[in-house]
Amino acid sequence: MKKRKEVFEHLDLYVCEAHRWEFKMKKFIVLLLSAVLLTGMSINVQAQPDYCLQKNTPFYQGLVDIGTHSLYVNMQGEGKPTIVFETGYSDTNDFWSVIQSNLKEEYATFSYDRAKLGKSEDNGLEKNVLQQVEELRALLHIKQVEAPYILVGHSAGAFIVKTFMALYPEEVAGVLLIDGTSEYQNEELLTLMPAFLQEDVKNSMTAEGDYKTLVKSGDIIKNLLADADISNIPITVLTATKPLGLDEVVPGLDAQITAKQIELQGRILTKTKYGSQILVDAGHYIYQEQPQLVIDSIRTLAER
Description:
- Helix 2 (97-103) packs across helix 10, helix 3 (129-142) crosses helix 4 (157-167) and helix 4 runs parallel beside helix 7.
- The relative contact order is 0.18.
- It contains ten helices and eight strands.
- Helices cover 33% and strands 15% of the residues.
- It has helices at 23-29, 97-103, 129-142, 157-167, 185-188, 195-203, 211-227, 253-266, 286-289, 291-302; strands at residues 60-65, 70-76, 82-86, 109-112, 149-154, 172-178, 235-240, 275-280.
- Helix 4 links the parallel strand 5 and strand 6 (172-178).
- It has an eight-stranded mixed sheet with strand order 1-2-4-3-5-6-7-8, with helices on both faces.
- It has one domain (16-38, 77-110, 128-302): Alpha/Beta hydrolase fold, catalytic domain (Rossmann fold, 3-Layer(aba) Sandwich).
- The chain has 304 residues and is α/β, with parallel strands linked by helices.
- The chain starts with 22 loop residues before the first helix and ends with a helix.
- The radius of gyration is 18 Å and the shape is globular.
C-alpha cells in the first residue's frame, strides 16, 4: 500500500500507523497523547533479567534480545556522547534516517523500534513509560552504549525522554524535545477541543497502548518530575508554530492551540538552569521539515 504521510501538524499525537487511515481521522489523532487524568494509579514494571553483554560495534542493525522479547536497533557512527533517538507515537526508527546519517561521522547514534512497532517484537506488556524506559536501558546496556547520552524525543517520545531523565539524571548529558508531548496536555490542551473531537481522539489510540495507558504515563511523569533534580541537564525545546487548520472546526482555535502548546512545552524549562525554547515555523515533524536546525541543536548540546 502506498504510504501516505499527510501530517496534521504540530500537536503531539501524530500516529504513523495512521498512514492507512483517512485524513480526517489523522487530524483527531494528533491531539491526544499527553493524557493525565488517573492520578495515583499504580504501575507494575516487570523486573529486568540479567543481560549477557554483546560485543559493541560502531554499526549495528538488527534485533537485540532483552530477555522477554527482541527489539530492533539501528546503531551508526562513533564518538561521544551517544545520541539516542525516541520517535513519536507509533513511529519507527527510520523516521530519523536523515538526522542519524548526518551525525554518524561525529557521534555514535542510536535509534530503535519500541515493542510492537516496526521490526520489533511485542512483549504483551503494558506500554507505560516506566516499562518503555527500562526496555530502552536494557538495549543500551546490552549493546554497551556508554552514558551519558543526548536524548532526543519527538512528540510522544518526549514522555520516554522525560521519564528517563527524571529517573536517571546522571546518565543524561542533554535533552532535545522536538514538539514534544506535555504531561499536562490532556487537561490543558485537549479540553480546548469540542467534545466530539476529544472522543474521537481517545478512541483512536490503539497502536501503542490505549488511552488509559497514556493517562497513567502522563501521571507518572508529573509525579517523577515533581521530585527529580534535573537542574544541571541542558534542555532545548523546539516548538512548531504552523497553524493546524482547526479554524475550520472552531474559529480561532488554531491560535489558542498554538499558544497553549508553546506554554506547555516550555514548562519543563523551569526545572533546569540551562534551558531554551525555539519557536519554529514548521509543522509537527520539525526534524523532517528543518533537519539542519535539529542537527545543529543536537551538536550544540553535545558540545557543551
